[in-house]
Every structure is written in structure tokens, then in C-alpha cells.
Amino acid sequence: MSCSEDVSRGVPQGSVLRPLLFIIFINDLDNGVKSKLSKFADDTKLGGKVDIREGGDQIQESINTCVDLAKYWQMEFNLSKCKVLEMGRNNENRDYRMQGVVLERVTQEKDLGVVIDMGDCSTDVTSYLGPGARLDGLEITFQVTEMSALTGSYNTMVGNNEGSMAIGGKLSNMLGRAERLVAQFSYGTKETSYGLSFFKPQTGCFERNITFGLFDVKGQFPWSSVREVDRGVSFDFNFPVWRTRHTVRWEAVWRELSCLSRTASFPVREESGHSLKSSLAHTMVVDCRDSTILPSKGVYLKVNQELAGYTGGDIRFLKEEMELQLNRSLPWGCVSVFCSILFFLGGPTTIRGFNMYSIGPYAESDFLGGDAYWAAGLHLYTPLPFGPGRPGFGDIFRTHLFINAGNLCSLDYGEGLRGHVSRLGSCLRWAYGAGVVLRLGNIARLELNYCFPTGVQLGDR
Amino acid sequence: MLSVESLASQMAAAEPWPENASLYQLPTDDQILLSDAASCLAVQTFLKMCNLPVLVVFRSSAESMSPSGKVPFIHAGNHVVSELGPIVQFVRAKGHSLSESLNEQEKAEMKAYMELVNNSLLTAELYILWCDKNVSSLISRPRYGSPFPFPLDTILARQKQREIVRRMKAVGWAEKTREQVHDEVDQSCRALSQRLGNHKYFFGSPTELDALVFGHLYSLLTTDIPGYSIPEIIRNYPNLTNFCKNIDTHFFLQSNTSKV
């Protein structure tokens, strides 16, 4: 038990009762107050319109009501912390009294961390208030410090097949309306790529924006013995509709495929050559997750369709893609279910335990990819057992148990929908395992998993 | 790399000539150009002389499919081999050779004449196609770009032209005039005509040199290029035209294989 203590003003600092006592005392402060009273935590503001004499009287009356209430609760206002801030040019500049003392009048006061500055009203009122000020309104100017107009970035990456160094330059707010020009140059051990993009948001609605891009990307894919060069232009229009985000994209890509080696399989060789894709794509995203890296609750849905060939070019296809993720919190962690249906699959964010792009049709040791693909997974993330390093450092780690399943195949267009479904379901690939996930800031995750590939088909690695 | 290739040719020797071997070349009607047509005809003639069956496949992307970037190429078993020289070697590894019976001196002579054909006739064809402004804008670029959609047709044809012109500059042909090109063709025809004399083939029996000379002379004879009179030059050497007629009737019963 603690000792008892007399408190004459305020509540004891740091005490567990402090917030509760404060709420009880402050709750009925506005009983009988006619002026506008706004309470936020321990900051209380009382205000009103003072264009005629009665306005000032009413404020004084409200102050008196508050003082009476404080007396009733056997409390006192700290007069040194009470200030009067007057706004507007037709103010009568009268004195307000509290507990018999005239309150200090200021032209600048900090409220909830924001400095409200009325300038030096006594000397040059009109020039300060600006041309837009009215009898009952003020012109407010926000003064902010802009980011530097030109920023640069430099990073190095080590990927599956090569290391590269990327140099980027960004001109933010290029034309004064939040336009952005981003240039990137990546110099790799094997290939060199470039990119340039221009971003322009609609004034007043940042979510509605357009992006124009130019790119020249080169890559080597040893698991398919392919070298790919993509040069293209793209045009994106982003806009929000209710709680969804939409993107309409037009893209023209000149793709050059060539064989990486003389030993490339013939089906890969047959795909070599130049092609031009011109496509229109639409993407809809609903993201209610609490975090994009390690979500613990919320839903994520992405639907994407791409139609190529009707705006020029010699490649024609229709691509449908759907991704759904459901996350739920459980007492001992969180569970995440995902399901996606798309086109050319592989890679660490889809089916774990198989090599990059290494499932599905193949020819003479080169993987060809397929026309259709589905994948589903169940993941369980829990804090580290016995909680070492918590709270703090240990928070960025999660243990991770998972089961993933999926399949990929080429479609025979004579079969119809029922045939496609049975083919996708027929030779299932699945894997399960456990691992540790490390969250790096809010931008990336690093996973270390041990996997048991279970349903494996001929040719998978 | 060397060991891999020698291993590959050893493996090639172990297998007989596959029945489904195919020869890939560019579509003849609207795409192939004189120089490629001549090279394709030479390889086709060579395989016919060896009596090796091959299925001719026309692909507009044959050039990018080829490991060396040049047509034609053959796909036999697991092997992909492009251009006449490597194909002759590959076929020899399979146990078929046309020049085996020649002595060392004749072999050297044959190689020299093959070089002559590649350095003068092939280079003259490339010069006419890509260095002559009139021919390149009227024939070469539109035909070369024909399988690609706009704007790739123009870009790729221009790229190809730049590459060939650079090569022509390197061998000192870029600044030649039409008369000088006619002279070059005439000189090589004279040399070939003198070597051939009134024989049926250059070395008694058909060799790869016969295939190469036929490929180029036949293509040049049957192609009409505005502003050039190459067929007339060749016709000045009757033994060469007879040589072409003879191979055509002997190996190609229906002689409708090549145009432009």
C-alpha cells in the first residue's frame, strides 16, 4: 500500500490513477458553457465570435462558469498557463478576467504541438492578415520546407544470377505541382538496364495520377537458357474508386529473345526473335491489411487482366490474374491464407521449395513455362518461441510454418473449361516446411525456410 | 569450350544422320534476300550432293534462331549447325564427305576458290542489297522488315543495314562504284570459268565448292536487280551457265527453289 497524500492542484504525475481522475474531473467542464469549448486531452480551448460587444460578454460568462465548476471540485486553474489569443481585424481587444486576474494576451501560442501565430497585430494588422481575410475568417498560410529538388540514390544488388549496381536520380516537384522525374541506370555483371519515368498527380487528388515510362531492361534466365531484352514505353493512369485502387495501363514492348548458349533446347530456340507487344491492362486492388510485409489481419485482393494485340504489335493474348490473401490474428500468432491464379509462375513469392521457374513443362533441361497456373498456401506466423529479445529486437522475427500447393501446365485450347480445370488439378505439386522470417524495416522481408517438397512431377528440380 | 565442341562432334559421329533433320531458312516469296537465298541454295545443294534427306522449313525468325545469326542452319538430332562451312564439318563427322578423295593440294585449291566466292560474289551481293541506296530502300529494307509489325520493321531493317555497311567499310567495299562492283564480279567469274574449263565439276566429282558456286551463280542469274547487269556478266562465260544448268537438272528436278 502507498501512503496517502494531499493534492491541491492537478493530479499526481505518473500515477496510474492520473488519467482516470483527469477524465472524472474534466468530464462535465462544459456544463452550462454557452461558448464553443473544445477539449483534447489536457488542452482545453474556449472560443466564440466577438463581432459585437455581447460576444465578448458571452466568453467572459463562459470563463466564469468554468471557474465556478473548478471551485466546486476544489480545483484551481493555473493562470500562468491560460492565454488569450485574438483573431481578426474587427476585434474589440477587451480584457478577460479569470479568478479576478486579467489574462495575458498573446499573438502566438502553441496548441497541440502546432504554433498558431497571429503576427504583430498592433502594428500592421491588415498587411499580416492577407487579402483573403474576411470579417469572420482568416487567410492561413502554411510554411513548409520542401525536399531538395534533386535527390540521388545508389544501391547494389546480388540476385539469383548476377550482381548489379543501380544509380538513380530523382527530380521531385519538377514543375511545381508534385511532378516527379525518376531516372535509373543499373550496371550489372552481365547486363545493363535503363529506366526513366515521369509522374504527375492531379492537383488536389494525389491518388489520381498518371505515369509515363521508358525502359530498356535486359536479363538472363539460365534456367530457361534465355536472354531477354525488353525496350518499351508505358502509360499508367491510377485512380481510386471507393475503397479500391484502379490502374489502367497501356504498354508497348519490343522484346528480343535469344539463346544464352549453343546448347539451348530447340523449343527455346524456336521462340527466339523480335516481337512487339502492345497491351491494355486493368488492375484493381483492395488492400485492408495492417501491414504489407508481415500482415496480421486484413484482406488483400488483386485482379488483373491484360489484353494484347488489339492496339498494334504481333502478340495477341488475354491474361487473367487473381490474387487473394486473408490474414487473421490468433492468440498465439497469425494465420494467412492465400490463393492466386496466374500465368508464368515460379520464384520465391509463389511456391517455395522449387527452383525459380523450375516447375512445369520443360525441354532438354530448359524450362518453358506454361499457360495456366494456380497456387494456394496456408501460413502460420508466430513470435519466436520463449520470446528472446522481446520487446524490441525480437519483434522483427517471426517463426513461419507453411503448406503450399500449386500447379502449372500448358493448355490445349480444344479441351474447354472442364478439361482445363481437371488438367490443373491432376498432377499437383506441393511442399511444406518451416522457417524464420525477418522483417527489414517496412519494406522487405527475409526468409530462411526448410522445405519438404512432397508432390513432385517428373522434371521438377 | 574447345573440349565441349570436340565432345559434341564425337557424339555427333556416334549417331547416324537423323531422318527428321531439318534445314531452316527464310520464307522465299516475300522475305529472303539475294545473299541469304544464295547461301541457303548452296547448303541445300551440298546436302543433295551428299544424298542426305532434309526437310526444308521456312521460318521468318530463322535468323534469330540460328546460333550464328545467319541462315541457313540445320537441326539434326540435338545439334544445331549454321552456315555452309560448319555444316560441311558436321556432315563429315557423320561420315559423309565430298572432298575426301581430293589430295592436299586440291583441298587447298578448293578452299581458296571458296574464299574467292565468299569474298567477291557474296560481298558484291551484300553491297548491292545494302550499300546501294536505291536497291536498299526499294527492295532490301521492305523485304527484310516484312515479318515485323510497325515500327519494328523499319528499326530492324535500319539496324541490319548499319551492321552490313560497317562490315563493307571494314573490307573496303563501301566506297566502291557500280562499275567497280561489276568488275569484281567479272574477275571472279573469269577465275572460276578458267578453273572449271569444260569440265562438269571443279574437281571431277561434286564437292562443296560446286555447291557454293552454284548457289551464288544461280541466285545471281535468276535475280533481276534494277540498275545492275550481273546476269549479263555471268552469261559471258558459257561454261559457268552450263555448269548451273547441269547441277540444276541433276539435283533439282523442279527448278523453282529460289527467287531473289
Automatic annotation (TrEMBL), chain A:
GO terms for biological process: mitochondrial respiratory chain complex assembly; protein insertion into mitochondrial outer membrane. Signal peptide: none annotated. Keywords: Membrane, Mitochondrion, Mitochondrion outer membrane, Transmembrane, Transmembrane beta strand. Gene3D superfamilies: membrane protein fhac: a member of the omp85/tpsb transporter family. It comes from Eptatretus burgeri. Belongs to the SAM50/omp85 family. This is SAMM50 sorting and assembly machinery component. It is found in: Mitochondrion outer membrane. The keyword Membrane applies. Coiled coil: none annotated.
UniProtKB/TrEMBL annotation, chain B:
Residues 40-160 form the Mitochondrial outer membrane transport complex Sam37/metaxin N-terminal domain. GO terms for cellular component: SAM complex. Its main location: mitochondrion. Keywords: Membrane, Mitochondrion, Mitochondrion outer membrane, Protein transport, Transport. Signal peptide: none annotated. The keyword Cytoplasm does not apply. GO terms for biological process: mitochondrion organization; protein transport. The keyword Transport applies. It is found in: Mitochondrion outer membrane. Residues 186-247 form the Metaxin glutathione S-transferase domain. Belongs to the metaxin family. This is Metaxin. It comes from Eptatretus burgeri (Inshore hagfish). The lineage of its organism: Eukaryota, Metazoa, Chordata, Craniata, Vertebrata.
